[in-house]
Amino acid sequence: MQTATTLEVLRSAVDQLRAGGKRLALVPTMGALHEGHLTLVREARRHADAVAVSIFVNPKQFGPNEDLDAYPRRMAADCALLEAEGVELLWAPGVEEMYPAGFSTTVSVAGVSDGLCGAARPGHFDGVATVVLKLFNQVRPDVALFGEKDWQQLAVIRRMARDLDLVRPHVEAIVGVPTVRETDGLAMSSRNQYLSPAARAQAAALPQAMREAIAALAAGSAAAPTLAALEAHLLQAGFDSVDYAALADPLSLAPLDTLGDAPARLLVAARIGGTRLIDNMHVGPTGKPE
Ligand code: PAF
To answer: Where, by residue number, is the active site (predicted)?
Structure first.
């Protein structure tokens, strides 16, 4: 695996990997890699001849009171995992390389960025969209893969890719990869390691409560009482607070009052033991594209 920390080295590595019309996939990450990221890498391999992974803890997507400094950084362990997966290229720029002095551009995707996590974390999706557009321009991948665990992030990136004509010829496809879960159903996340053993055990209530809510919605319950019951379940199970629980259109993320014939998404963010966990699940008919 070649590691690039400067744009100059990255560009020549990318040129070599793309020589002869070879296809390149990009898996953007912030490191602290776990099985969920490795699933993205394996899926990337199915779409391309070579796989590039970026590791960059993006300061622009953290709010002033968020966990930027505490965010886990484990470059040596991450490199070993990527080497074992046969990744061809690691792009690991420093903050100065990504945002040189005088950097003053922000990409903002209105609408889909505004509610849910966007309401709780003002500016977060501007930071995500800005860095992802830069990563696309830097690596010029044919395909880029993102976890469905961050469903709103995926919706923001898809909207940006459509609005800014990135999808062809720049990035042929944005691929969403289903969430990888622990055996008790908790969605894998780099932030799970912040949980104490007690909070980690209680956190399994999140996917359980969501599955119960999905069963209720499928049986005809309206969204409002179902989401209120979901919140009550989480608080009773030991969660400190619920930022939001929403039934939404999967693409626009507009809230829905009831489950209709079309696919919908159940999205939740809740805090336990000082850690904010998010999860989302498909609701409604299977097999219909979202
Ligand atoms: O999902 C993440 O890890 C980050 O938000 C991303 C997409 C790498 C942008 O910094």
So the answer is: 37
